[in-house]
Amino acid sequence: MPSYRVSIGVGLLRPGVDPAGVLPTAAAAARELSTVEASDLAVTHGEARISVRFTVPDDEHALAVGQHVVATVDGLGHTIRPTLDRRAGPRWTPVR
User: Fold this and answer.
1) Using CA atoms, how far apart are residues 44 and 9, in angstroms rounded to an integer?
2) Is 31 left (phi over 0), alpha (psi -120 to 50) or beta?
3) Domain CATH number, residue 84
4) How far is the CA of 41 from the CAs of 21, 59, 93, in angstroms?
5) How many structural domains comprise the chain?
6) Does a structural domain hold residue 94?
7) Which of 2, 23, 26, 81 to pair with 16, CA 20 to 30 A apart?
8) How far, in whole angstroms, is CA 83 from its chain's centroid?
9) How many CB atoms lie under 10 A from the CB of residue 6?
């Protein structure tokens, strides 16, 4: 089964949102529709980015998972440049 990754920049959080809960909430949202392989938080060029890696049968399902995760995180705060990528051998390629 193909591996996918949704990556989301996270900006200003809504009042009362615990920053430590954003990544677990994103992973839980993906887990509702797929099998989650990993989740990660990184700071790249001064921007917090969360990534959730998951498996689903095809791009159509991956798009649904990605949209669900982005919508969930958007409910917690400002989302910046979300991306969805598919694993192809050692590389990640964008899903269109």
Assistant:
1) 9
2) alpha
3) 3.30.70.1710
4) 11, 24, 20
5) 1
6) no
7) 81
8) 8
9) 27
The per-residue pLDDT for 40 is 97
Whether the pLDDT of residue 79 is over 90: the answer is: yes
Angle of CA points 74, 48, 79, to nearest 5°: 20
Confidence of residue 17 (pLDDT cuts 50, 70, 90): very high
Interacting residues of 85 by C-beta distance below 8 A, sequence separation 6+: 4, 5, 7, 92, 93, 94, 95
Stretch 26-43: mean pLDDT: 97
**Domain membership of residue 84 as a residue range:** 3-88
Asked whether the whole model's pTM tops 0.85, one would answer yes
Indicate whether 84 pLDDT > 90: yes
**In the block, which residue shows the tokens 């996270």?**
10
- The answer to whether position 93 is within a domain reads no
Helix (H, G, I), strand (E, B) or coil at 62: helix
Q: What is the pLDDT of residue 96?
A: 84
Domain assignment present for 18: yes
